[in-house]
């Protein structure tokens, strides 16, 4: 019996192994098919000049690529495919491209397919950049591509004491990963300062001047050319990340403002604290700040009012709001404790903003267009998981969303608040990895709204008051007694003869009363004394 069970278990394992082999073979076939499809669609493009600038002066990596493309084939080409290693693409917050000649933004679409380089055993994600016009054979065009990501930076060492110097490591490529050959290519890396621990000196030529390390120029690079690049450098800036952020925007046509409430969690993403944290050492004069932070600043709209800030404990008294007109209002605050490596702090803040700053009415389409953005707080702190909830006024219909940014999830629902009868339409948006540059791509929420719905709440309130008073009036006229009401009973009381003497229950007293003469009792007139003489005390 035990042998039979063992054979059955082995059979199941064998079938599972066959399934895994089949899935892997299907993936290989699919990758080859995608390679062929993308290769055929890419056309005969050549990158004549590629200048790549990697900015490491901040804690969020930004790559700016200037490229000149030439159509060396026989057919027009309108799509330029941008490659990025899968490990990097998973942590990319923005891929933006524009045409140099016109300055117009180009449509960038991430493709679900991948391209595999069998020689380097590397899989690339593909982004489709659509040119403004088909590029005819022999013609050239220039593009600017901006990429912001967090994949290439990591702290080294990974643990530091309280006042240790932080070092970061950038790991990337000296060559631009590309599906196309390049005639001439240069990569420049900009550091926070001129100090470095180490950096790659291959492939030559490599030159360092001040804060910039230049790789190249390299000539006649084939497609999929790669060369590892590594830079180890000190960084005094604190790497911050927002693990989760939620923004709740409630629109009120009746009040004429938008109420914004936000919840965020910030994390120190640098080297973790080694040992114990000692607050006393931070209070010693002339002591370096170290690898900790507790001062933050949030930019709010310049028209923001009714601003509040609190955390899990309650109100934070170290907040300060100042207005840098006409740019923005700045909310400065100090966390209740200093953030060391790996520590987190969460808070809630909110404000009200005039509706005219966000909402526009289009008479041609009879639609309202609301302009909102995903939550982003600090210039170099990406948001790993961002939520945006927009609550439209009661009666809004035909809701539509449009944006140039890629959204991971969009859901619609109904939100009920005070004195709501049919509920308010709600749009909930989610996106993973939001960088500050995404503020350039607002989300437009469009809807129709009949102004007669503004009278809905007064009618509901008036109806509720009438119903309340009507109910109170009806209740006051109702009988809640357990027995039926019969009215007061009529009782007969015997009338005694006033001429009869009163009879006491005491026998002796009744005899005395009976024997007493029926002479009238003399009465004294008011103001007349009983005798003309006053009795003196102690004399007869």
Automatic annotation (TrEMBL):
**What subcellular locations does the record give?**
Endoplasmic reticulum membrane
Q: Which UniProt keywords apply?
A: Endoplasmic reticulum, Membrane, Signal, Transmembrane, Transmembrane helix
User: Main site of residence?
Assistant: endoplasmic reticulum
How does this chain sit within the bilayer? Answer: Single-pass type I membrane protein
Q: Where is the composition biased (Polar residues)?
A: 190-203
Report the pathway entry. Protein modification; protein glycosylation
Recorded GO cellular component terms are: oligosaccharyltransferase complex
Record carries keyword Glycoprotein: no
Transmembrane stretches, by residue range? 452-475
Q: Which stretch is the leader sequence?
A: 1-26
| 4Fe-4S recorded as keyword | no
Instruction: State the Pfam families in the record.
Output: Ribophorin_I
Any GO BP annotation: protein N-linked glycosylation via asparagine
- The annotated region (Disordered) lies at 190-211, 488-540
Q: Report the protein's function.
A: Subunit of the oligosaccharyl transferase (OST) complex that catalyzes the initial transfer of a defined glycan (Glc(3)Man(9)GlcNAc(2) in eukaryotes) from the lipid carrier dolichol-pyrophosphate to an asparagine residue within an Asn-X-Ser/Thr consensus motif in nascent polypeptide chains, the first step in protein N-glycosylation. N-glycosylation occurs cotranslationally and the complex associates with the Sec61 complex at the channel-forming translocon complex that mediates protein translocation across the endoplasmic reticulum (ER). All subunits are required for a maximal enzyme activity.
- Sequence similarity: Belongs to the OST1 family.
Subunit comment for this entry?
Answer: Component of the oligosaccharyltransferase (OST) complex.
Q: Quote the protein name from its UniProt record.
A: Dolichyl-diphosphooligosaccharide--protein glycosyltransferase subunit 1
Annotated organism of origin: Tieghemiomyces parasiticus
């Amino acid at each position: 019996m035990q042998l039979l069970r063992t054979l059955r278990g082995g059979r199941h394992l064998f079938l599972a192994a066959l399934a895994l082999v089949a899935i892997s073979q299907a993936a290989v076939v699919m990758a080859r098919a995608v390679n062929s499809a993308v290769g055929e669609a890419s056309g005969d493009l050549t990158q004549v000049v590629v200048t790549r600038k990697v900015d490491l002066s901040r804690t969020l990596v930004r790559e700016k690529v200037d490229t000149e493309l030439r159509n060396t084939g026989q057919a027009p080409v309108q799509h330029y495919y941008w490659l990025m290693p899968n490990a990097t693409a998973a942590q990319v917050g923005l891929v933006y491209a524009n045409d140099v000649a016109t300055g117009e933004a180009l449509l960038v679409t991430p493709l679900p397919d991948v391209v595999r380089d069998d020689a380097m055993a590397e899989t690339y994600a593909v982004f489709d950049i659509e040119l403004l016009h088909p590029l005819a054979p022999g013609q050239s065009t220039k593009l600017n591509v901006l990429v912001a990501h967090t994949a290439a930076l990591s702290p080294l060492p990974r643990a530091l004491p309280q006042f240790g110097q932080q070092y970061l490591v950038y790991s990337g490529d000296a060559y631009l990963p590309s599906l196309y050959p390049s005639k001439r290519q240069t990569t420049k890396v900009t550091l926070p300062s001129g100090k470095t621990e180490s950096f790659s000196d291959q492939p030559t030529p490599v030159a360092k001047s001040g804060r910039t390390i230049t790789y190249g120029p390299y000539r006649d690079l084939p497609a999929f050319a790669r060369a590892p690049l590594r830079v180890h450098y000190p960084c005094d800036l604190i790497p911050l990340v927002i693990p989760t952020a939620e923004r709740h925007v409630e629109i009120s046509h009746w009040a004429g403002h938008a109420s914004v409430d936000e919840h965020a969690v910030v994390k120190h993403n640098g080297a973790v604290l080694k040992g114990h944290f000692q607050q006393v050492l931070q209070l010693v004069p002339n002591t370096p700040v170290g690898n900790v932070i507790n001062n933050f600043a949030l930019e709010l709209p310049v028209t923001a009012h009714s601003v509040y800030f609190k955390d899990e404990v309650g109100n934070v008294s170290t907040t300060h709001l100042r207005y840098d007109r006409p740019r923005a209002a700045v909310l400065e605050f100090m966390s209740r404790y200093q953030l060391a490596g790996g520590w987190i702090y969460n808070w809630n803040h909110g404000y009200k903003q005039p509706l005219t700053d966000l909402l526009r009415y289009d008479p041609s389409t009879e639609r309202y267009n609301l302009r909102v953005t995903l939550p982003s707080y600090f210039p170099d702190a990406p948001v790993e998981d961002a939520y945006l909830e927009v609550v439209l006024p009661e009666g809004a219909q035909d809701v539509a969303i449009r944006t140039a940014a890629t959204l991971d999830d969009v859901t619609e629902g109904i939100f009920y608040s005070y004195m709501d009868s049919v509920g308010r339409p709600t749009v909930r948006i989610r996106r993973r990895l939001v960088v500050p540059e995404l503020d350039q791509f607002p989300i437009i929420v469009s809807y129709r709204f009949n102004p007669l719905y503004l009278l809905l709440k007064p009618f509901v309130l008036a109806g509720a008051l009438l119903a309340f008073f009507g109910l109170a009036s009806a209740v006051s006229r109702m009988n809640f007694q357990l027995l039926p009401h019969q009215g007061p009973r009529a009782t007969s009381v015997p009338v005694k003869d006033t001429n009869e003497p009163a009879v006491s229950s005491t026998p002796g007293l009744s005899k005395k009363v009976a024997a007493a003469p029926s002479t009238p009792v003399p009465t004294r007139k008011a103001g007349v004394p009983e005798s003309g003489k006053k009795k003196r005390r102690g004399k007869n």
